[in-house]
Design brief:
alpha/beta, Rossmann fold, 2 domains, seven-stranded parallel beta sheet, six-stranded parallel beta sheet, 10 helices, 35% helix
Amino acid sequence: MIPQLKDKNTILIAPLNWGLGHASRSLVLIKHYLKEGKKVGVASDGLALDWLQQELKDEDLDFFELPAYDVDYKSSNMNWNMIRQYPKIQRAIKLEHRITSKIVELWNPDFIISDNRYGVYATSVDNALITHQLGMQYAGVLTDTAFQMQINKWTAGFNQIWVPDYEDQRLAGSMSASKSEKPIRFIGPLSRFEEAKNKDGNGILVILSGPEPQRTKLEQLLEKQLLDFKEEITFVRGNNDGSLDPLNEKYKVIPLASSTQLSQLINQARLVVTRSGYSSLMDFDVLKKKVLMIPTPGQKEQEYLADLHKANPLIKFCSQNADLRSAIENF
């Protein structure tokens, strides 16, 4: 269901650097268009850019660096974090739009795909915004209305919106229900994985991601609670800059896994433990593997997704403040 773009030959793809979810789903598009013989450029920043450069090191494509949004998470309430830092986000969007204009002059793409980067567009170039976040009906009428107004403002420069979801059976629930006047195209879930060959496996795989300090808090909780756990436990820490404190030597630790390595680890594990971000839900919808998902505290979207998919027998959800060891043992 990925759009073919038959009359486009040079494509710029720009994922948001917010964990690796946007980068990993953009990787699916990058590889698809490279396979079709397109010339592809990638624009991002930070960990997302570093990870994509490593994943695509054997491919012939160009990379461009965009400004970081540099959002912090001092509050446990994600909505308040975004409201408090709205001016900073606006400045980053304006700056990345100016840089995009320079990339267009230099590189001359004939199509731009922006994954949740609202400044990556040019009025002279056909473009699409990738997002599953078209509404916040789960957050109340006032919040949803304010969010809808902001989304309409941020998407004004885009020609169309691509939603990585099923049109008739939505993984994102009401979030992908749009009131936008822009043309909407459901392109299906984007996952770099195939269905897991080994549905059973041995040991526990912990995949950590998302913003600090909650990434580290979850890691510390799991490290403490699973210290004398009988099964082998592997931590994929989602960080390769060497800034994290070492984990107990009992655990197998991988700073940052490639797609091939992560696929192998998931196949080998009995159970995967991770956050309930939308990209993870897309992955495990494809993998058909048992996964325990722990919503990031304060992220209403992840809590909403947890409630939305609670009937799925292969996915269980658990609060970060709950007995995580018991949840893992009993799944």
